[in-house]
Amino acid sequence: MPTNPQVLPWTPPPAVDVEALPVGTWWDAVRAASIVGERALKTLGDETGAVIQDRYGTLYWLVAVGSATSWHLRQVRVLAELADERTYLGVPPVSWTTGPGSHWRVPLGPGRYLTDAWRLREALAEADRAEYGHMPEGRQLCYRCQLPTDEPIPVATETTTGVDHTLYACPTHATTERPPRDLTAAFRTKRGRP
Fold first, then answer.
1. C-alpha count within 13 angstroms, C-beta hemisphere, residue 64
2. Contact 30, 63 (CB under 8 A)
3. Measuring CA to CA, which of 81, 110, 142, 177 is 20 to 30 A from 149?
4. How many whole angstroms separate alpha carbon 22 and alpha carbon 54?
């Protein structure tokens, strides 16, 4: 029996404010920082499903439950139900289509519900490469907290004796500030260079 294309399989409950809804019930969500998310949204164009944008500019795509697993992209997280705890996403009322708070950046509606996870991953991977360059092998130290990170984001490049050296930051410190100029000198000294 054919389904009515004008009826969505899920709609946000009637609410007057953002409501925390569990992921993994109707959909999973993919969260991307604005710098990566904006580029991916442009790449997807008309192939995107509904997208929520929060007050910080972070974008959230709804994808089929279980369709986005083991993604390793900088500034991107898959929100899915975990075995030992619930994960929630703040979902605005369907009528909220403008900011500055959480709203539907790409409105939910017939023909615009879930985004194909494979296409989304490709768009996000392309955005990751365009914004941050090639992903270095292995973990890198964050220049600020000096802890290893699996999501190294380049924040400065320095050339000494013809060789480029890149300073990396963890996602938290990459968005807060750039390293001071004297830090690159300290980086050279730490590595045994004048």
1. 5
2. yes
3. 81
4. 17
**Model pTM?**
0.73
**Bond prior to 100 in cis (omega within 30° of 0):** yes
Contact 61, 115 (CB under 8 A): yes
Distance (Å, rounded) from C-alpha 131 to C-alpha 74? Answer: 10
Q: Tell me the residue type at 138.
A: G
C-alpha closest to that of 77 among 23, 14, 15, 113 = 23
Please name which of 50, 63, 58, 61 lies closest in space to residue 24, comparing C-alpha atoms: 63
Q: State the pLDDT at residue 125.
A: 92
- The amino acid occupying position 50 is A
pLDDT of 161-189, one tens digit each? Answer: 777 777 777 777 777 555 554 444 444 44
Measured from the Cβ of residue 102, the count of other Cβ atoms closer than 10 Å reads 21
**Taking 60 as the threshold, does the pLDDT of residue 54 lie above it?**
yes
Three-class DSSP category at 118:
helix
CB 140 within 8 A of CB 77: no
